[in-house]
Write a structure and sequence with these properties.
The chain has helices spanning about 45, 60-70, 75-80, 120-130, 180-195, 235, 300-310; strands at about 1-5, 20, 25, 35, 50-55, 90-95, 100, 105-110, 135-140, 145-150, 210-215, 230, 245-250, 265-270, 275-280. The longest helix has 17 residues, at about 180-195. The chain is built from seven helices and 15 strands.
């Protein structure tokens, strides 16, 4: 099922004042932090800035934006889908993945390595909805993003997709009374995709399953005047609040696709590995070597600080 969208051309240039890179920090084997390889050219410039460290959970760009506006990821997508089923009582963000089986585990391809667009989303809806509708569910394409709606809510708490993308597929039921029901649904989806021909995936990694996360209760309203956001991630792009954006959120490998008008802005947040560091311009050189925090504030402090900055722009 497709939700209508107005798309801004890819050539749009963004003059942002706050940039958040959701996977910029990586943890090494010795516990230290390093920048994502895609940020190597910017590493020296970023290292000179004043730093404030925070402990926080990992998130995808859509999840970060949801946290900043006090919403859930699924609620943001649902607000942009005007023709959801009247009987729908719950929504989930549905993230496709490509699985790479090992001897004792299944590793997922990083989301940025899985090409995905609106045509793929339409195909997947057509492929899975005959199965899902038997369960009172439906898959909706919002641009290239996917929203799963349920008539009978699933009471489960699966990990956010950011916690498993590029990592291991969980082999245990998530917390909640319906954890087993959720995993059985995901297994049925995997079997259905295994049997499909996947014609739109020619020359691209196959889609082996969906991961559900970021749930919300439906119907769900949102506050008016949400801040505009520039994005290169297909799920955050589905919101398409990008006109005049002072805020940009992306993954490291998609930074160049943002086409920032003036290069890196003065305010940058590097996130990843359960931490985030807020970088601000400084007249004094930063003598810290590496990216190891000496102390960290809580995630609530980071969200509050970023909201203050966005409101001030």
């Amino acid at each position: 099922m497709r939700c209508a969208r107005h798309w801004i051309p890819d050539s749009t240039l963004f003059a942002v004042r706050l940039l958040l890179i959701s996977d910029a920090l990586q943890r090494g084997g010795d516990g230290s932090f390093a920048l994502h390889p895609a940020l190597a050219e910017s590493g020296r410039t970023l290292a000179k800035r004043r730093r404030r460290w925070f402990s926080c959970t990992d998130n995808k760009p859509l999840g970060w934006y949801a946290a900043l506006v006090g919403s859930s990821p699924a609620a943001l997508l649902a607000a942009g889908c005007p023709h959801l089923p009247v009987a729908a009582r719950q929504g989930w963000v549905a993230s496709p993945f490509h699985a790479m089986p090992g001897r004792d585990s299944v590793r997922l391809l990083p989301e940025s390595d899985l090409p995905w667009d609106g045509h793929d989303a339409d195909w997947l809806c057509a492929e899975l909805n005959p199965l899902l509708m038997q369960e009172g569910m439906a898959l909706h394409a919002c641009g290239a993003a996917l929203l799963l709606t349920c008539e009978h809510p699933i009471e489960a708490e699966p990990a956010a997709f950011a916690a498993i993308a590029g990592g291991l597929l969980p082999d245990r039921h998530p917390a909640g009374p319906d954890g087993g029901r959720l995993m059985r649904l995901l297994a049925e989806i995997q079997m259905s995709l295994h049997a499909s021909g996947q014609p739109t995936r020619a020359g691209k990694p196959a889609v082996n399953g969906l991961w559900l996360w970021g749930a919300c209760t439906l119907p769900k309203g949102l506050a008016a005047n949400l801040p505009a956001v520039a994005a290169a991630d297909p799920y955050l792009q589905a919101l398409h609040h990008s006109q005049g954006a002072n805020l940009a959120i992306c993954e490291a490998v998609r930074l160049s696709a943002l086409q920032l008008q003036d290069g890196l802005p003065g305010n940058v947040v590097l996130a990843g590995a359960d931490h985030a560091v807020l970088l601000r311009p400084s007249s004094m050189p930063n003598w810290s070597k590496g990216w190891q925090p000496k102390s960290s504030l809580g995630e609530d402090r980071l969200i509050a600080r970023l909201r203050e900055m966005i409101d001030a722009f």
